[in-house]
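ZP: hey, is the zinc ion complex queued? I don't see it on the tracker
AM: it wasn't, my bad. submitting now with these inputs:
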Amino acid sequence: MSESALLDAFRELIEGSKRVVVFTGAGISTESGIPDFRSPGGIWTKYQPIDFGDFMASEEMRRESWRRKFGADKTISAAQPNAGHHAIASMVASGKVTSVITQNVDGLHQASGVPDDQVIELHGNATYASCLSCGAYYELEPIRDAFERDETLPTCDICSGIVKTATISFGQAMPEKEMARADAETWACDLFIAIGSSLVVYPAAGFPAAAKRAGANLVILNRDPTDQDPIADLVLNMEIGPTLSAVVE
Ligand code: ZN
């Protein structure tokens, strides 16, 4: 199929659907300059990720975790939503897309205007911190100031619990509420669009198949082929921002 025929087919699937769910992975944010941590040369090929059990067990691991966080933060805090984020935001605003399920922790869907309650973050959010015991919300700014002064580790003002960035670490349980919402949205939709995810890592890998079992159409938009391509109704191996802009305009 030619590129324009693929775009037409994509448009038709969207127009023919009543309830669309968008699922996004790292690929959508690389166009905003955020590296894919799993890609060759990414952060995780240089550092062993800190396991949640080690984080909890050792003050030194907690210090190392905050050192890395504030070292890498300049990239994430400078990042802006790109054309792909904006196209998705306009599909949400039109009522076509009911929710955005994301593996990303950069907060760029919210920054592009998707309401907080329509973004389901499977791996948490790196733009704030929270108490692991009571869930209290903490801004990063004061934590950074104290940490950069003398490596003070943040603790909860309310319950003295351990405060950690609001991301889900390796070895940490998936967030139950978000997983349940993502499942419900996937089963209720009639079109599931997976964008910028290699769809290899669980739970990401399970959603496209669940959508198909529930009778939805499945579109996969990713620069490279994915393991789930064989079950998709339409596969687009194209750049994300330009493709979504062309379809939504
Ligand atoms: Zn607390």
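AM: back. Residues 131 and 163 are 4 Å apart (CA to CA).
ZP: great, adding it to the tracker
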